[in-house]
Amino acid sequence: MASTVIDPASVLKPARDIRWRRIDGEAVVIRQRAGEVLVMNEVAARILDLADGRTPVSAWIEILAQEYDADREALERDVLAFTAELAAEGMLEVDPIEAGKTTDGL
Amino acid sequence: MSAAGAFGALSELDETALFGAGFLVNPDLFPARRSGETWGTREVALGLPGGPYRFTGLNSAQEEAVRHRFGAYCDAPAAPSEGVESTLFRASEADFRTFDVRGWEYGLDLDAAPDSLRLAGLRLVGRLDWRPRLLGALWTPDAGGQPFAGIFENFLRVLTAYRLQELGGAVLHCAGVATLDGDRARLFLGRSGAGKSTLSRLAQERGATVLSDDLNALMPGAAGPKVEKLPFTGDYGDTRTPAPPLPLAGLYRLEKSADDELRLLSRAEAVACLLACSPYVNADPHRRDGLLVNFMHLRPPAWSLRFSLGGAFWPILDRWQAPSSIPPAS
Amino acid sequence: MGFEQVLQKTWRENILFSVLVELTYRCNLDCFFCYNDLGLRGEPLRTEQYLDFFAELRDLQVLHLTLSGGEPLAHPDFLRLGAWARELGFVVRVKSNGHALRGEMARRIRDEVDPYLVEVSLHGANAATHDRQTRVPGSFDRLLANLREALDLGLRIKINSTMTAWNEDEIEAMLALTDDLGVPLQFDPEVTLRDDGDREPLSISPSRAGVARLFAVQAERARAAGVTGAPFAIGKGGDDGTMPAPAAKHCGAGSSGVAVDPYGNVYPCVQWRRPVGNLHRQSIREIWADSGALREIRDLTVEAKGVVDAYGPAGALMSFCPGSAAAHGNGDPLRVYPEALRRMELLGEVFGGEEERSAKRRAILPVVP
Predict the structure, then answer these.
(1) Do B33 and C44 touch (CB under 8 A)?
(2) What is the mean pLDDT of chain A?
(3) B131 — contact with chain C (CB < 8 Å)?
(4) What range defines the domain where residue A54 resides?
(5) Amino acid B15: pLDDT
(6) Other CB atoms within 10 Å distance of the CB of residue C197
(7) What is the pTM of this model?
(8) Which of B155, B268, B330, C291 sits in a 20 to 30 Å window from C66, CA-based?
């Protein structure tokens, strides 16, 4: 699968093929075309929450930094890497329209 | 599914092969069974010939519309073991195509099968099923009022025609007029424009009671064929008050003319005339033969009547008293 | 935590995960053995109520939403409701007879509903048998044409078939037909009563020999495909297609799933027609949390597990359904009914040793690409 470059300005949303729900903090994810089900951890579930097609990755990092009381630089590295992985797996997709808009205040 | 979308869809399919395509957005979804969600829990039983015709699943506005339209016909006792049961189901506005009805002559599409009949019309989808007894179902988006009453009547006309055919009789396009003494009734047959309403007017001016200028029933009786009043009229007749059946005085095939003349019809001519004037069932290849058998058994005395607007034909009719059976063909 | 553990968790902790909605009892076919209670009456749910209901299910984190009927496509707002379900992120299944699944409708389902699966029903290997069941001439030919079109459009299809006395001699031919289409075919060897208790459908129940042959054919196909141990997908799956997970309860009825009829009545599952609430009077959240009837159902599924376990490892082969038991046995959901015993016996003969019987795999039915 082609690699996807994710940076803090990227805006992502769940791929059209993906359906998911939270069960006790974890995410149950269905990939419809493959007929596959995955169970993902809390962080992945949180990222799927945040990937709303409007909010850039930079905002996620701010939110997660507060929720997890984690080192911001390390968190940014991990979030970008994990998000890129999800995108490479076809679970997230970049929203080109939103990515081109300005993000005042963020 | 929008009507606009449906037009696009229909163009991709063989429209002539799809029953109901003229009225329905998606004829693929035509109900194949008597099922769905009813409008309510109200019931009404109509005491028409062949009944009672019991309808369940109405809401209160629909019940009121039927009672207002059919008056004393709705006072029939409900007898579930007899008559015909029908259920009213909800349809949606979105089920039906919209089109300009100005200048459009109302009609129903009918599709007959060996044990069923499908109906499609303006805001109406219906079924008659013989399982083995006759059962009806009607789907409409109309929740009450005059529009609903019209839809209900359109369905009831077809239901009555089929019910009476299976009871040995027929619904006929004809004017039914009682004799002046009220003891018997004459039926004047003809398609649209033959003169039924004109003759009804002349009869009424003469003081005779017009049963209906549109549809009447001819049924077998112990002493010969009898005429049964139906609540389906055009401009003349009473739609709300039932009446007891009357022995048939005569059956007349109408023809407007400058002169008045009466000619006895042969049996074949009589049967042909009756068949031509039997709406709905005469186009049903699975039950038309049953209609023919009924007419052969009924053997109503039948004439061709050429009549003028002067009304001089009445004495001619009065002179020819109907025997209880047709004389041998001349 | 794997998916099986997730399923166990939903059963154990009463997490609503799957909902089947009967949108309407209208249908464009007239199958002889249809289980719908056509005499049921009530106030139908309005489209606005469905929209709110689906949103509430999303808030409850329900994942699977199955649209059924009657024929769900016959609901006048099917596409709107399906699109809303898609927007809310459900794994949507559509249970359709396939008769109207063509042209514009099929394209809009693909584009606007984007279902995980469209499940259609096949009743025989030829028109005579299939149309005999549907009582609509031409329905078999129409179904095959529609399936080809739907597959070309990219819709994911699964075919279900209930085995009957009418089609039990056509199993191999039906499998050959669906193999040719490249679509999975799942048989249910049991004809069920109508939801009003009418036993007429049982008059076409398959014979013991027919069911035995079905199991033998399926076992052989599984072996030929390299599946070891007891084949999967022979047992009775849930409304969402998942296979039972080992748990303290026999099934997820009322614990992780419910079914809803067109009048808002809520049931533990599509088979168990004991109402536990009504959406006209309470929200699904309230019913799920407060229904005394649901609490009873959950307790009964624990007892049902005991009933099945009493048969030892062979008990799992019964595919016992408390809902069917209640229908067969005058309301007793714990009474083992003859069809369940027969299935246990016949599957036992097919699978032989106890070790094989106990090695039952559980999986979501794979979708053929």
Answers:
(1) no
(2) 85
(3) no
(4) 12-89
(5) 40
(6) 13
(7) 0.90
(8) C291
